[in-house]
Amino acid sequence: HRVDRPVLLVLGGKDVQVDAETSRRAAEASMPPSMMGRSRTVVLPTVNHMLQTSRTGTLREYVLIDETIAPEVFETLANWLDTE
Prior knowledge:
By secondary structure, the protein is α+β, with helices and mostly antiparallel strands. Helix content is 33%, strand content 12%. It has three helices and two strands; from the N terminus they run E-H-H-E-H.
């Protein structure tokens, strides 16, 4: 299926399950050129696979984090929606 709507892809820089840079490149390569200007890929350096603020990104840390989703994820989403 082709995506014909703007896309926001948020990736965690501390994600040890999915490499953020590899995912970013793959997502951007798969987007039609017409969507590149309207879509955005963001790698948040302190965020893990679960989009939580993380020190290590390891699976063991998941149960120690009291946060559901990092505030910077919400800020990124709100800023992106505000520009759409």
